[in-house]
Design goal:
36% helix, five-stranded mixed sheet, single chain, 253 residues, 11 helices, Exonuclease domain-containing protein, Nucleotidyltransferase, domain 5, alpha/beta
Length: 253
């Protein structure tokens, strides 16, 4: 008997008319697979691809300036509902979906289209695995880390669905080879754990460096990632749970 095909995590990237459905719609969907090899290592598999989508609504100039997709480019394209399911649900091989800042893709790629798949957010996982990075956007990580095997031109232009999925897939590959799939999914289900303070007089400091009064001010911040990080640091200071270790051992990991 032929061996079963390898498990895959499919990286997804969307270009859209805006940030929030149903007011906004999808213009392009791109994908790239990362597969588990016989040696237990994850690697990119296949050529990936992208499909243009008719959003059924006008494209604001502001978003055209980002991805350069015009209304005439998608006027004859299929609807998202007609193409999304087979791309998002390559069952039975797919064990999860992934995206950089996956909460954005999840708004459009609903459980009905994904068969309720788990998602990996490579942004949230990068915060945990590479806290020393100067920034955590897809492109900053690309040039900071210089992943082995990436073809520079294949990852261009930025802000188009396939090139962005291709770049994200290299981040995901390296994450899966550093932590388990289950761990990446778990990290992705909670808010982002920020390695440094984002704003204010302590901007740029690591969280263990700020005093208790400054930390307390972040506990009710409107941003859920900041609140979560401040609560995690408070628990560390109180010796609570797995975060109660010495900052020198790797703060907030």
């Amino acid at each position: 008997m032929a061996p079963p095909p390898p498990q895959i995590v499919r990286v997804i990237d969307l270009e859209t008319t805006g940030n929030a459905p149903p007011q906004h719609g999808v213009l392009e969907i791109g994908w790239q697979d990362v597969a588990l090899g016989k040696d237990g290592r994850w690697e990119l598999e296949g050529t990936g691809g992208s499909v243009m989508v008719n959003p059924g609504r006008p494209i604001p100039p502001l978003t055209m300036a980002v991805h350069h997709i015009r209304e005439e480019d998608v006027a004859d394209a299929p609807w998202f509902q007609d193409v999304a399911r087979p791309i998002l649900d390559p069952w039975p091989r797919r064990v999860a979906l992934a995206a950089h800042r996956a909460s954005f893709e999840e708004q459009f790629c609903t459980p009905a289209l994904t068969r309720g798949a788990d998602w990996i957010c490579t942004w949230k996982c990068a915060l945990r695995l590479w806290p020393e990075a100067p920034g955590f956007s897809n492109q900053i990580l690309r040039y900071y880390r210089r992943p082995d095997g990436m073809e520079h031109e294949r990852g261009l232009p930025a802000h188009r669905a396939f090139p962005d999925a291709y770049v994200t897939a290299f981040h995901l590959r390296d994450m899966l080879n550093s932590a388990s799939l289950a761990q990446l999914v778990e990290w992705s289900k909670v808010p982002g754990l920020l390695p440094r303070v984002r704003y204010g007089p302590d901007r740029g400091k690591e969280w263990w460096e700020i005093d208790d009064d400054s930390l307390a001010a972040f506990l009710s911040d409107r941003d859920e990632d900041i609140r979560f990080t401040a609560q995690t640091e408070l628990a560390r200071r109180r010796g609570g749970g797995p975060v109660g270790h010495d900052p020198a051992e790797g703060l907030l990991l």
